[in-house]
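Hi all, long-time lurker, first post. I run a small reading group and we've been trying to get comfortable going from sequence to structure in the token notation. Rather than ask abstract questions, I figured I'd post a concrete chain and ask someone more experienced to write out its structure so we can walk through it together at our next meeting. Sequence below, copied exactly:
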Amino acid sequence: MFELAQHLRDEFAELERALADPGVHADAARARRVGRRYAELTPIVRWMDEYERLSDDLAAARELGLQDRAFATEADQLEQRLGEVADTLTRLLAPRDRNDSGDALIEIKSGEGGEESALFAGDLLKMYTRYAENRGWKVEVLDAQATDLGGFKSVTVAVKAPMVGDPGAMPYGVLKFEGGVHRVQRVPVTESQGRVHTSAAGVLVMPEVEETEVEIDENDLRIDVFRSSGPGGQGVNTTDSAVRITHLPTGIVVSCQNERSQLQNREQAMRMLRARLTAAAEEAAADAASAARRSQVRTVDRSERIRTYNYPENRISDHRIGYKAYNLDQVLNGELGPVVGALQDADLQMRLTQVGGVDS
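-- Answer (accepted) --
Happy to help. Here is the structure in token form:
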């Protein structure tokens, strides 16, 4: 079993040698890529070692069990443990998004509902921020267009883990399922007669990618500078420091006005552009793939309604997997774990159907 995964041992050994090479660490971007892949393969190789050890022990116990019943009992226990390890290893070997072990950028935009939608966008930002902080992740605001009542027309944040870990526990691998339309049903603060309104906000989750991972031709960019608008510190609104970048081949437009200097805003905008280009390329690849290979859970399409937040019933519903719970207040306070876990489980089952022959 798992013979097809043996090449991962060789790759793991090469990565270990690379991490011991001072020349690799002289290139920060390369060192991060090597470290990230090493972290991905570490649990796989560890469980492969455990599987082989248990297989050898089981074979020996079965042979001895022909003469001693005590060894036959041990063989039964080893066989059960081997099955558990095989299940874990199968899950680890299921194909996954290559960006799962990286950080994420989240863009939230208000939609239908005017000011109420902008306030809901702000609530989503607080929800993700609290969830990230609970997991020990850092949230960095890259760009924000706030409204007078404290909501957001648009806000983009980077979510970063302090170190590389299991792909299923890294920002992008966890948060990528949040992309789509989030609908809220509640009485708006602007509603004088107490009627429940429905509004929505769009969420786009993108992988944070290194500058060296995405090739962007400067000739394909149109860069405009303008004066920042909205609330800001001294100097923010008095100089042409805001930057808007248009990627001409794709028509993707990003802008940033949060930083004081034009150079800083340009750097942040380029981070957003790299993420947008990566997300667009992967969405195009998914569209080109057969229906059987496409994930039924993940989406970066902001036009797909994925979830409803019903305040009167304290209910949260995820329409993709039929998830429903009556703890909306806790979820909005950052307790997204059960929702995220259900989405990850559904995604895993989908990925496992794609590799029925991995362990054979």
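A couple of things your group might point at:
The longest strand covers residues 197-207.
The radius of gyration is 24 Å.
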